[in-house]
Amino acid sequence: MLIATASIMFYLLAALYQALQLSKKASQKPAVIFILSLSAVFLHGYASLQWVFTDQGVTFSLISIITIIIFAINCIALASSFKRQCPDCILLLFPLSALILSIAMTTVAMKTKTSGINAPIVSTQVGFHVFISILSFSMLTIAAFQALFLALQEWRLRRKQFGSFPQIFPSIQTMESLLFETIWAGFGLLTLSLATGLIFFEDLFAQHLAHKAFFSLFSWVFFAILLWGRHFRGWRGKTAIRWTLIGFGTLALAYWGTKFVLKVLLAS
């Protein structure tokens, strides 16, 4: 728990420091924010791995999956923010990460005191498939947020409402380029996730995974069409935003909708 607590502190310090720098309009010090951010993300990842790799084996509870998804999102966003010179994006992610880690710590502590963490033990192959699936979902989650920010930028640009928004986020061209870079990476990981699922699971229907497989494949088709349209038709703007959000919405149904079907509908 001490590692997760330290991660929360570094997340809050990094967000607070960046907010102060932005409010004072002072010159940015990349070294300070980089050390704080890297420390927070590293400790976050270490704490998440402790909740996954237990004495009983590899386990994937709902809370551990959520923390790993947030960790992966932070890793990708942190690398992208420094590459694109947009470190202010951490103002949105880091406070949320601190909140989720706090909830995770409380949940794990309560379950440990009562009956332990009840999560299925999985094999190494299945664990690899789950890990790739989490990475693909995390990458495409970032793409969905980028699409929302891109839509907001275009909306404000049409109405000539700027304020400090353009100073915090990159230009529309940069955001759009980064959006498709993220989608390509997420699409590749989603393809690998579907392939490993077909290899490691003999009967998806018998294991009640048909819902996840169906919606994941549906999402793969949406993103494939989007990337085809971008490459051959030059799709951008509203078209790119619309297809990105539809594809992500379908993938979200595959991940969270499946849990709802298994735990609520089928259980009843």
Task: Furnish the topology, listing elements before pairings.
Blueprint: H1 2-24, H2 30-52, E1 53-54, E2 57-59, H3 62-83, H4 90-114, E3 121-122, H5 124-158, H6 165-168, H7 172-200, H8 210-233, H9 237-265
Helix pairs in contact: 1-2, 1-4, 2-3, 3-4, 3-5, 5-7, 5-9, 7-8, 8-9
Word description of this protein:
The protein is an all-alpha fold and 268 residues long. It has nine helices and three strands. It has helices spanning 2-24, 30-52, 62-83, 90-114, 124-158, 165-168, 172-200, 210-233, 237-265, and strands at 53-54, 57-59, 121-122. Strands 1-2-3 form a three-stranded antiparallel beta sheet. A hairpin with a 2-residue loop joins β1 and β2. α1 packs antiparallel against α2 (30-52).
Structure summarized in a few sentences:
The protein has helices at 2-24, 30-52, 62-83, 90-114, 124-158, 165-168, 172-200, 210-233, 237-265, and strands spanning 53-54, 57-59, 121-122. With 268 residues, the chain is mainly α. α3 packs across α5.
Features:
single chain, 268 residues, mainly alpha, 2 domains, three-stranded antiparallel beta sheet, 9 helices, 80% helix, disordered C terminus
Count the beta strands. Answer: 3
Radius of gyration, CA atoms, in whole angstroms: 20 Å
Q: Would you tell me the structural class of the helices and strands?
A: mainly alpha
In total, the number of domains comes to: 2
In angstroms, what separates the terminal alpha carbons?
A: 35 Å
Which strand-content bin applies to the residues? under 5%
Q: Number of helical runs?
A: 9
Element order: H for helix, E for strand: HHEEHHEHHHHH
Mean residue pLDDT: 79
Could you give a short account of the major beta sheet? 3 strands, antiparallel
Low-confidence stretches: 264-268
- Measured as a percent range, the helix fraction is over 70%
The coarse silhouette is flat
Cross-sheet strand order for the largest sheet: 1-2-3
